[in-house]
Design brief:
By secondary structure, the protein is mostly helical. The chain has a single domain, classed as Orthogonal Bundle (TerB-like). Helices cover about 70% and strands about 0% of the residues. It contains six helices and no strands. Helix 2 packs antiparallel against helix 5. The chain is globular and about 30 Å long.
Length: about 110
């Protein structure tokens, strides 16, 4: 499975999660920007903007995002989303506490072996 095969709803979860991880340290580094650019290249800028707007409207806080992520049932989709977000998180030399905590929660919730 690839990012281009995700449904709109699954992309909303991916982009919302990416936004939460990227903003955990309040900055977007060049390596993080490169990962985001790769996703935009795959799904297209128009789709990315639509999905980002949808995520921003749905997820007022981290709890809302977590509640949504718990509804993702397909394990292949879970692994793709987790792997993509993990790649973004480790794009910088250090993963901060907020990123680490969120990724740990997600791995546990989604039964991802790390």
């Amino acid at each position: 499975m690839t990012i281009s095969e995700l449904t709109h709803e699954q992309l909303v979860g991916l982009v919302g999660l990416l936004e939460a991880v990227v903003m955990a340290d309040k900055t977007v580094s060049e390596p993080e920007q490169a990962v985001l650019s790769d996703i935009v290249a795959v799904i297209g800028e128009e789709m990315y903007r639509a999905v980002l707007e949808d995520a921003d409207n749905r997820f007022a806080d981290l709890d809302a995002l977590k509640a949504f992520l718990q509804t993702v049932e397909n394990q292949e989709v879970r692994e793709l989303i987790y792997g993509t977000v993990w790649q973004e998180a480790v794009a910088t030399p250090s993963v901060n506490h907020g990123e680490s905590e969120l990724l740990s929660w997600l791995a546990s919730t989604w039964a991802i072996q790390v």
